[in-house]
Amino acid sequence: MAQNFRRYTANNVGTSAVSVLASNSYDTVIGISVANITASSIAVDVYINDGANDIYLVKGAPIPSGSALQVIDGGARFVLQNSDTLYVQSDTAASADVWVSAVDDIST
Predict the structure, then answer these.
(1) Closest CA to 108 of 30, 1, 48, 25
(2) Is the CB of residue 30 less than 8 Å from the CB of residue 3?
(3) Which of 25, 10, 20 is nearest to 94 (CA)?
(4) Per the count of CB atoms within 10 A, which of 34, 60, 85, 92 is most buried?
(5) E strands of 51-93, at which residues?
(6) Considering the entire predicted model, what is its pTM?
(7) Residues facing 21 on adjacent strands
(8) CATH domain 4-104 topology
(9) What is the DSSP string of 3-41?
(10) What confidence tens digit (pLDDT) does each residue in 51-96 have?
């Protein structure tokens, strides 16, 4: 069976939470990279809202200037269900670029 690999991006993420991936099926997230695009250190939150709660993957994670945070590593993966939404937020305006890799429409 063919897999539907997808990428989702967000540029200049700042102090308001940005929806990077809103699931409309069962999706497997296989990578999240958050890059600091400023000259100063930033702190970021990456979380999933399941329709009722915010579940944090990282909260207040520091990223030095010119660096990136790999939120998923070592072969880890996680599944989003229909209506789950992945958000990213920084403590600094227009400070982060985000790249998410996922497999869309996983069989149930």
Answers:
(1) 25
(2) no
(3) 10
(4) 34
(5) 54-63, 68-70, 78-80, 85-90
(6) 0.93
(7) 86
(8) Jelly Rolls (2.60.120)
(9) -EEEEEEEEEE-SS-EEEEE-SS-EEEEEEEEEE-SSS-
(10) 999 999 999 999 999 999 999 877 889 999 999 999 999 999 999 9
Which residue in the block uniquely carries the two structure tokens 């209506």? 83
Q: Which of 83, 18, 14, 25 is nearest to 6 (CA)?
A: 25
Q: Cβ distance 41 to 65 under 8 Å?
A: yes
Domain range list for the chain? 4-104
Q: How far apart are CA 64 and CA 80, in angstroms?
A: 29
Residue whose structure tokens are 């789950």:
84
Residue type, 94: A
Q: Tell me the pLDDT tens digit for each residue of 83-93.
A: 999 999 999 99
